[in-house]
User: What shape does this take?
Amino acid sequence: MNDLKNTIKIFHGPQHPGITGNMSVELDLLGETIKRARVHVGYLHRGFEKLVERRTVVQAFTIVCRICVPEPDPNEENFARAVENLAGLEISEKAKYIRTMVLEMQRLANLFLWMGGQAGSIGLGLIPQWSVCDRDYMLDLFEELTGGRVYHMYAFPGGVRRDLPDGFLDKLSDLLDYYEKRIIVYNNTFFDNVIFKKRAIGVGIVNRDEVLKNAYVGQTMRACGIKKDVRKDMPYLMYDKLDFDIPIQQDGDVYARALVRRDEMIQSIRILRQIIEQMPEEGDILQKIQKHRKFKLPADDTYVQTESARGAMSYYMAGDGSEKIRRMQVRGPSLVHAYTLLEKLLVDSELADVAMTMNSLGICPPEIER
Amino acid sequence: MAIDIKGVLSPLSAIGTLFEHPRTLTYPEVTKDILVGYRGFHINNLETCIGCASCEEVCMNDAIDMIHPDKEYNPKNTSGCIPRIDYGRCCWCSLCTDVCPPSSLKLDNICIHADCDPDNFLYMPKNIKNIGEDVS
Amino acid sequence: MDLASKLEKLSLELVQKNDYLYKVSVKIDQLESLLLSFINEFNYITLDSINCRDDLEDGLFTITYCLQTEARDHIVMVQTSIERETASLPTMHTIWPQAEIMEREMHEMFGVDFPGHPTLIDFALEYWDNIPPLRRDFDTLEYVNSMNPFRGQRTDALDTKEEMKKKREAKKAAKLKAEQEAAAKAAQEEQNNPKQEVSGDE
Assistant: This one.
C-alpha cells in the first residue's frame, strides 16, 4: 500500500473513446506509470442468463446474439449447437456449410472492426475510417442473407432460418477478391507502419508459461507461440473438412497479436473460398422442430465451445424436461482476459498504452457481465 | 538503431487514395438499394389474417396486442381481432412471421420511422399483400 | 481409456457425452482432491469455467467445473452438488488464478460463499441487497414491475380466446336466429298457400 501513497487515481472509462465498451479501468498512476489497475464492470448488465430462463427455447434464441455486440454469431452457433446436443437434433450438410460460412464471415467482419479499434487507440485515424467501411460491405452481405446487419438471429436449433439468396456466393467471392487487395493496403499503411511498430513492439507481453493454465484463449494464446484453435482441436460443423492453418507468433506482445489477426484474416478468406466451392446445391436448411410450447429439452447438461474471432467461447446449458432452459452460462474470452490478465498486464506500463493493450486482448465488456 | 525505411515510406502510399472514387453515398440524394430480405416494419394482409393470436403467443417481448379492426376484413377471422405491434418492445426477430399460419404477417423492407409522439410506437401493420407494394 | 479405469478405482463413473466431452459426478468432499488429480495425473490443466445451476426443487446448487487438457482437445465436466441453504465451496484461486473472478461472480449471482477468497466484492451489481439475482426464487418480472413505472397505453388489448368464444356464440345466436326466422318464414309461406307445392310435385 506504501507504493500507492503518492499516486493519482484516474478512471479510464466508461466514457472513454479508447475503451472497448461500457467498462472502466481504475488506474493508480505515479507520473505516467500505472501502479495498480482495477477493472470495473456493471454498466451494461442486462441479465441475459436470467432472461433466458424465463423464455421457451424457441424464444430464447433471439436473446443470445445480443451478448456480444460486434460478434453475435458465435453466440448463436453455441446456443443452437447446445440445444441440438441436448435434444439430439441432426442438421443437414447444407445447413452446416451455411453456418460455417456465417461464422467465418463474422470473423472477418469482427477483425476489420478490431483493426479500426487498434489503429484508433494509437491515433492512426485513417485506418478506422477504412476498416469500418470495409466491414460494412460484409454487413451488406449479412443483410441480404439474414435480414439484419448486426444482429442476425440466423442460426436456429436444427439449421438456419433462410436459404441462400440467388447469386449470394458470387457476391461473396467478389468481396473476398476485394478484401485480398485491401489486406495489402493495410499491410502497407498499418502493419508495416513505423508508428505502430514503435508503439506496439514490446508492450503488453503475456507470460507464455501461464497461458495454458490460466485459460487464455484466441490470439493472446497464439501470439505466444502456442498453436491451438478450437476449429482444429475440437472440430465442429464442417471445419474438419476444410483446409486451413493456424497462424502463430512468438513474441506475445501487442504487435504479435496484431500479426496473428492479420494472418487469420487471410486464413478466413481461404476458408470462405473453399466453402464457396464445396457448398451443396440442394438440401434442407432447417429441420422442423415442434412448436415452441411443445419443444422440450431433456434433463441433461452439455458444454459447447466455438472459436470466435477473439478466442474460444463456451456455453454451459442444462435442461430440466420442460420447455424452458434451466440454466445457460456464457463463458466468453473476455472474462478472464479482462480480470486475470489485464489487471496484471497493466502494472508498470504507461497510461497511453492502456487502450491499445485492452484492444489487442479482444475484451468485449457486454460479454463479461451478460 | 537503423531507420525502418519501409515502415516510414509505405504508409505514404495512402496518399494514392486521394485520387480514388469515394465510397460514401450522398444521402438523401443517392440511397442504397433496399434489399428484399431486410427485416423492417410489419405488414399484415387483413383479407387472410385469421386472428389466431399465434404471433401474440410466440412473441417473447410481449410486443403484440390483439385488437379490433375498424371494420371486418376477413369473414373467416375466428376472433375478429388483428395484431398491433409495440415498436418500443419489438426486436424484429421475425418469429411472429414464421409462425403465422396463413402467412399474412410479413416483414417489409422499409425501416424508417421518426415521430415526436411516443404513443405512435404502437404500430398497426399496413394492410398490403406483398412486400414492397405501395399503400393506396 | 485409462482415464475411465483410473476414475473407477475412485469409484467414480465417467460418462462420455460426445467425442470431446466427458462428465464425472463427485461428492463435495472428494471434489478438491479429484480436481488436483485431474491436473496432476490426467493433464487437464486448464479451468475453462465454473458453472452453477440452481435446482430449486431439490434444494441444491449443481456446480460444474469444466476442465480442459493441455492440448485443449478434451473437456471434462466435474459436477458436484451443494446445499442451497448453506451454499459454500472451497476456493480454487490458489490453483487457478482465473477462479478468483469466476467465484466472485458466482458469489454475487448465486450467493455461494467461498471461505478464504480474498476479493469477494461487488462484481457487476453495486449495493445489491435483494436475493442473489440468478437464484430461481428471485422473480425478475415482479422486481421490474416494482422498480420501474410503465407507460399505461396498451389497455385496449383483447384476449383472443374470449373474443373467439364471443364470436362463436354470436355466430351461433345469429345462426339460431336465422334458422328461427327461416322456419317462421317457411311456416308463414305454408300458411299462405298450403297445398299448391304438394300438388305441383305430384
Chain A touches chain B at residues 55, 58-60, 62-63, 126, 133, 143-148, 151, 153, 161-162, 165, 185, 187-190, 192-195, 197, 291-293 (CB under 8 Å). Chain A is about 45% helix and 15% strand. The mean pLDDT of chain A is 86.
